[in-house]
Amino acid sequence: MRATRSLPLALTMTFALTACGGSALSGDGGDGGGDDGSVKIALLVPQSGVYAPLGKDMEAGFRLFLEENEDQLGGKDVELTVVDEGAGPEDGVPAGTKLAQDDSVDAVVGVVNSATALGLTDAFDEAKKPLIIANAGADSITGEESSKYVWRTSFSNGEVGGAIGKHVAEEVGDGKVYLVGPDYAAGEEFLAGFKKSFEGAGGQVAGTQMTPFGKTTNFQPYLQKVRNAKPKAVFAFYAGSEAVTFVKQYDKLGLHDEIPFYGTGFLTEGGALKAQGKSAEGIFTSLHYSSALDNETNTDFVAAYEEGNEVPPTTYSVQAYDAGQVLDGALEEGTSGDDIVAGLKDTGEIDSPRGPWSFSDNQGPDQTYYLRKVEQQDGAWTNAVEDELTQPSS
Ligand code: BEZ
């Protein structure tokens, strides 16, 4: 097993890739990798819709890895194209399918939305082109039926929800918990993963509400139903601008003082937490990263990222940074889809800011999940790491 190569984080922040929203960043396409020693990578991330902030963080994370590696992956010059995933699958599936079918693109990194990822796997499988998913957590993507061309550096939805279920069951005792999330694949799977481990540990669900994804700006009618059910706690998945609105309205209705609030870590991540401020104080979440993690790799990563971006990194930045790490190793094998897949199979332990992880047989990360609590430290809101969470056995 080959360990991935990672140059010192603070190496250089200065090489120039000029952003030009949604179009090629350098070069003009070409014949795909190999012949001239270069490789063409497309980054498919949202630049619009409720998940646009996540796309920005992912682009920053991937660029940081390139900057630290002299704009190369596997010793080959990288030609990077950034393509808009849009607000949902109606935009993301056609955009991703075009990249799968574009012979000049060697591999695609990104995809935030689970529904988009589910709509893209067949196109990448048919094109025999690697898709490195750096966020979308749809459970089946790295399940038994997964394509050998689709890999993931992020998480699977059921695992993130499942990681905190037992902890919440122990905290609430014989009280009931209310579940809330957006009505698409990810919302359903995060809540299902939580419910399975929560009920497995003796917990009881008071009720579930799924809110229309990407359209809901007034959560008050849903929150009123939550209050009426008198649960002992609430568990929620939201991300991006929906997370900001949900958490602020939860607080504004006075629920924050009445009902303890748990969620997946996306609820209080990065720019969302900054916008939520005090309204998020005390929320407990599960995730595989916090910028507050105390390890040497993360300390260096946070410093390098903050230097270039003036904000702390997020889990989205790390997932994309690690996509750079795994592709760097895999592209040493060559640039055809099968070469890259052979290289990915050979990936050793990744020295990641989230802590060491490696690919499991299902082509997704085998990693640690953390219990985080929103606290104010040195004047800034942060996800303090409280503990490691044990994954329930399925
Ligand atoms: C998803 O659709 O898989 C997803 C979106 C945002 C954050 C986490 C997961």
Which descriptors apply to this entry?
394 residues, alpha/beta, seven-stranded mixed sheet, six-stranded mixed sheet, 12 helices, 15 strands, globular, disordered N terminus, binds benzoic acid
Mind explaining what this structure looks like?
It is built from twelve helices and 15 strands. With 394 residues, the protein is of the alpha/beta class. The strands form three sheets. Strands 8-7-9-10-11-14-15 form a seven-stranded mixed beta sheet, covered by helices on one side. A six-stranded mixed beta sheet has the order 2-3-1-4-5-6, with helices on both faces. A two-stranded antiparallel sheet has the order 12-13. β4 (107-110), α3 (114-127) and β5 form a beta-alpha-beta unit. α2 (89-101) packs parallel to α3 (114-127) and α4 (157-172) crosses α5 (185-200). The radius of gyration is 20 Å and the shape is globular. The model is unreliable at 1-31 (pLDDT under 50). The structure holds benzoic acid (BEZ). Benzoic acid binds next to loops. Residues 51, 112-114, 135-137, 157, 186, 239, 266 line the site of benzoic acid (BEZ).
Quick overview:
The protein contains 12 helices and 15 strands. It has 394 residues and is α/β, with parallel strands linked by helices. A hairpin with a 2-residue loop joins strand 14 (369-377) and strand 15 (380-389).
